[in-house]
């Protein structure tokens, strides 16, 4: 996908290309204030504890991969977030929202991206 041209972000093309070409499983400094560590890992195997401020959960939808929208997976994300950490997803399904609440998140609906009426933001309390 040609994000650089669509977003008219030509001056960011070097950083953009670097993000996509650097090797997995090791940390890379992309700009002075941005580094990345790409981990090739199943969600089911994630066991980080209080490691992240923010999770963008961009899994295929619950209709296609229901096993990724369960309390078990949201518990992993809850544990992986720091206190007050945020999990966002384009999904706004009631069952997803209820699973997030069941594992301890405070959940709010937000206006969705283009083409989606709503999305969810879950905060670790
Ligand atoms: C909608 S795509 C997200 C693409 C991603 N945002 C990107 O820009 O490359 C969903 C991704 O989830 C990955 N996936 C599917 N099952 C998974 C699992 N059990 N654990 C981790 N990733 C999984 C798929 O391979 C796919 O790359």
Tell me what the structure shows.
There is one protein chain. A four-stranded mixed beta sheet has the order 3-4-6-5. Strands 1-2 form a two-stranded antiparallel sheet. It has helices at 3-6, 13-21, 71-80, 94-102, and strands at 27-31, 34-37, 52-57, 81-89, 105-111, 118-124. 11% of the residues are buried. It contains four helices and six strands; from the N terminus they run H-H-E-E-E-H-E-H-E-E. The mean pLDDT is 96. Strand 5 and strand 6 form a beta hairpin. The longest helix has 10 residues, at 71-80. The N and C termini lie far apart (36 Å). It has two domains: 10-40, no CATH class; 46-125, Vaccinia Virus protein VP39 (Rossmann fold, 3-Layer(aba) Sandwich). It is α+β, with helices and mostly antiparallel strands. Bound molecules: S-adenosylmethionine. S-adenosylmethionine (SAM) is lined by residues 42-44, 58-60, 65, 68.
How would you describe this structure in keywords?
binds S-adenosylmethionine; 125 residues; Rossmann fold; globular; 26% helix; alpha+beta; 4-stranded mixed sheet; single chain
Query: How many structural domains in the coordinates?
Result: 2
Q: What is the third-level CATH name, the topology of the largest domain?
A: Rossmann fold
- What is the strand tally? 6
CATH class descriptor of the largest domain: Alpha Beta
CATH superfamily membership of the largest domain: Vaccinia Virus protein VP39
Low-confidence stretches: none
CATH architecture of the largest domain, by name, is: 3-Layer(aba) Sandwich
Instruction: Give the termini separation.
Output: 36 Å
Main beta sheet? 4 strands, mixed
How are the strands ordered across the major sheet?
3-4-6-5
Ligands in the model, by name, code or SMILES, are: S-adenosylmethionine
Q: Give the DSSP E fraction (strand runs of 2 or more residues).
A: 25-35%
Query: Considering DSSP H and I runs of 4 or more, what fraction of the residues is helical?
Result: 25-40%
SSE succession: HHEEEHEHEE
Mean of the pLDDT scores? 96
- Based on Cα principal axes, name the global outline: globular
Radius of gyration over alpha carbons?
16 Å
- Helix and strand content put the structural class at alpha+beta
Helix tally equals 4
């Amino acid at each position: 996908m040609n994000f650089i041209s669509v977003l008219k972000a030509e001056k960011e093309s070097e950083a953009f290309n670097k993000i996509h070409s650097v090797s997995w499983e090791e940390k890379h400094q992309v700009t002075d204030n941005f580094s990345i560590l790409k981990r090739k890992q199943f969600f089911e195997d994630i066991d980080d504890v209080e490691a992240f401020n923010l999770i963008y959960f961009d899994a295929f939808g619950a209709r296609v991969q229901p096993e990724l929208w369960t309390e078990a997976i949201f518990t992993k994300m809850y544990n992986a977030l720091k206190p007050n950490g945020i999990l966002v997803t384009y999904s706004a399904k009631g069952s997803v929202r209820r699973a997030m609440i069941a594992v301890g998140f405070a959940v709010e609906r937000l206006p969705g991206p283009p083409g989606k009426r709503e999305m969810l933001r879950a905060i670790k309390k």
